[in-house]
Q: What sequence folds into this?
């Protein structure tokens, strides 16, 4: 039977080190507000630690935890964890098959290359109303995981490491969360990532990743602020991209009811657009293909071309809107375009092209400007 153990320094309470020495499976340690040290860390197994203060910062544990093969679960609630050594705050060993649940918690690190949570084994990780400051959430190559995050905040704008990094196999469902940094899946990842009603600086998607983006903002302004590569499949609904969206290699994407500043597709990428707005520049290269319906292609003042294709790229569009804003369209090499234009903000287009016969545009007058071979 679970025991409720009052931990603190007042009368009738168990002292912290003694409580750790005597702890048994299923125990619940209730910590009075204060400061608690774990100088050598703690290998935990089947216990719950709960802070009794009004806020998680009222009860601070300085140290780190390891979850090994003998740990079925570890719960932590209403507590702040601070690590000042070169240790991950929560380390899930390769031998583990465990649950880690954090509620209303703060994890803070001052070391750039440490993780708030480092997963190597089989793990179910649940984070509810958790702040991660100065550290990452990292799921490594050997991990088999299910990550659930809701109402969380991750502040790790590192140039070297991902704020949330996924290498292993599993599912990550992230909702109502702000990520100040990048979320990355890696070349050896085989995962599903669902990002809902959230905000993230940068998304870098590799490997075999299935990603669903819903009602989410990507705030980075670089060309590759949302970069998708390898054999990843992306489904985007009602999202906003402040910078560029870049599809590479064999990426596949369906984008609906969304807005972005720039769109680039290259290699063998395949993109489907519906009710989507591109504000500054669209570029398809190599063997990339795009099918667009009720999509707005606009030009920005920093770009010579509002729409450009080269090599064997192709674009098929129905009921599209063209807003060149004095920009030019370029259809080079053996690229081809078939468009049915619903409306445009100018009466005619001049198109730089090598083969005018590869261009079919209805709904606006256009004239070819032939380029040399």
A:
């Amino acid at each position: 039977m679970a025991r409720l153990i009052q931990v603190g320094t007042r009368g009738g309470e168990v002292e912290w080190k003694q409580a750790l020495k005597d702890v048994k499976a299923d125990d619940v340690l209730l910590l009075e507000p204060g400061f608690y040290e774990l100088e050598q860390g703690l290998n935990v197994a089947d216990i719950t630690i709960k802070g009794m203060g009004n806020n998680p910062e009222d009860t601070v544990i300085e140290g780190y935890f390891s979850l090994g093969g003998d740990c079925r679960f570890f719960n932590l609630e209403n507590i702040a964890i601070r690590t000042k050594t070169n240790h991950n705050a929560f380390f899930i060993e390769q031998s583990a098959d465990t649950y880690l649940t954090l509620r209303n918690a703060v994890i803070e690190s001052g070391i750039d290359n440490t993780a708030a949570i480092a997963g190597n084994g089989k793990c179910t990780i649940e984070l509810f109303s958790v702040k991660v400051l100065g550290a990452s959430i990292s799921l490594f190559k050997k991990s088999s995981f299910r990550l659930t995050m809701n109402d969380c905040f991750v502040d790790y704008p590192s140039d070297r490491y991902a704020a949330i990094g996924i290498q292993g196999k599993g599912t990550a469902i992230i909702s109502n969360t702000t990520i100040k940094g990048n979320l990355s899946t890696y070349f050896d990842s085989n995962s599903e990532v669902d990002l809902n009603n959230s905000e993230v600086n940068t998304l870098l998607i590799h490997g075999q990743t299935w990603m669903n983006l819903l009602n989410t903002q990507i705030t980075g302004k670089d060309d590759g602020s949302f970069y998708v590569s390898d054999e990843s499949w992306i489904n985007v609904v009602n999202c906003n991209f402040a910078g560029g969206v870049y599809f590479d290699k064999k990426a596949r994407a369906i984008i609906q009811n969304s807005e972005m500043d720039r769109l680039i597709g290259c290699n063998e990428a395949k993109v489907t657009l519906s009710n989507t707005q591109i504000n500054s520049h669209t570029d398809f290269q190599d063997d990339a293909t795009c099918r667009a319906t009720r999509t707005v292609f606009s030009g920005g003042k920093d770009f010579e071309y509002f729409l450009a294709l080269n090599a064997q790229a192709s674009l098929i569009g129905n009921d599209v809107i063209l807003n060149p804003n004095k920009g030019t369209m370029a259809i080079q090499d053996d690229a081809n375009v078939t468009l049915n234009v619903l409306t445009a903000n100018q009466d005619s287009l001049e198109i730089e092209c090598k083969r005018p016969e590869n261009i079919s545009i209805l709904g606006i007058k256009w004239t070819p400007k032939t380029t040399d071979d």
